[in-house]
């Protein structure tokens, strides 16, 4: 049973969509039978909104799913109505980012490339604060930093998330927050790289051009086979989740190539330590 209500909602959405399609029903036909609008059913099937357990039961009856299979899905739907910890930060986290955090909280693996900044899961409190002040101003900054630090618990839970990070070398050389903050940040990354579930690789300038020059990304993988991997892309004002298999495969191959182009984890640790000398 999945723990994150976001992942449960996504599971229910996929199951209902597949059941409708297997039954040869259009959105219009199913929506009429379920006494809801076509747009509402579409949003449910795309995990944009939740669905109540009683409505799941009605949909399963329509799609002729009964017995233990139906009860298992209804139980997942009940779990999807629970509140995740991140929802208590809805005053400072936009809806599109809450969706990502809900996926991240359940992910078994995270693979990411960052070109300009240290990924949130590796940030110190001081570095996170400096990033927020630069990109979003001081409104709600304490709450935003608290939420970012709370997210980092996935690195230490049981079992922890497996994290593979490729960092542009420029991240090490840009003194965000000043020399002291940056020095502490680099030392923190060295310490985190000692965790068995964390791999950090530096993509050096000497590697030249590479296929991710225009696209930082996160690939989220899940332990349950029913929960397909997701690629998450983000800019200043919105996030985008790509769930199609060809997108996920494309970014997976991209990440594998970046890992081959980057310094090894041991070499990367040495490079991070070298860079930290700039901030002593």
UniProtKB/TrEMBL annotation:
GO molecular function annotations of the record: DNA binding
Protein name: Helix-turn-helix protein
InterPro entries, sorted: Cro/C1-type_HTH, DUF5753, Lambda_DNA-bd_dom_sf
Gene3D superfamilies xrefs: lambda repressor-like DNA-binding domains
Membrane-crossing residue ranges in chain numbering: none
SUPFAM superfamilies in the record: lambda repressor-like DNA-binding domains
Domain HTH cro/C1-type per the UniProt entry, residue ranges: 16-70
């Amino acid at each position: 049973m999945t723990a994150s209500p976001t992942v449960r909602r996504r599971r229910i959405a996929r199951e209902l969509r597949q059941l409708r399609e297997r039954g040869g029903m259009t959105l219009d036909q199913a929506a009429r039978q379920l006494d809801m609008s076509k747009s509402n059913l579409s949003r449910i099937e795309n995990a944009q909104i939740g669905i109540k357990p009683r409505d799941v039961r009605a949909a399963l009856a329509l799609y002729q799913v009964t017995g233990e299979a139906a009860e298992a899905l209804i139980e997942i739907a009940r779990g999807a109505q629970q509140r995740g910890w991140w929802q208590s930060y809805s005053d400072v986290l936009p809806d599109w980012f809450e969706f990502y955090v809900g996926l991240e909280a359940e992910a078994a693996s995270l693979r990411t490339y960052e070109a300009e900044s240290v990924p949130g899961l590796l940030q110190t409190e001081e570095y996170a604060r400096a990033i927020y002040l630069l990109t979003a101003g001081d409104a709600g900054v304490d709450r935003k930093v608290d939420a970012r630090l709370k997210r980092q618990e996935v690195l230490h839970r049981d079992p922890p998330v497996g994290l593979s990070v490729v960092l542009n070398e420029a991240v090490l050389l840009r003194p965000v927050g000043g020399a002291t903050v940056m020095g502490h940040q680099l030392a923190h990354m060295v310490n985190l790289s000692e965790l068995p579930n964390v791999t950090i690789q530096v993509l050096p300038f000497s590697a030249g051009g590479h296929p991710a020059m225009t696209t930082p990304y996160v690939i989220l993988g899940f332990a349950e086979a029913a929960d397909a991997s997701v690629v998450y892309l983000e800019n200043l004002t919105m996030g985008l989740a790509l769930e199609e298999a060809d997108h996920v495969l494309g970014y997976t191959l991209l990440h594998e190539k970046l890992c081959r182009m980057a310094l090894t984890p041991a070499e990367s640790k040495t490079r991070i330590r070298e860079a930290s000398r700039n901030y002593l």
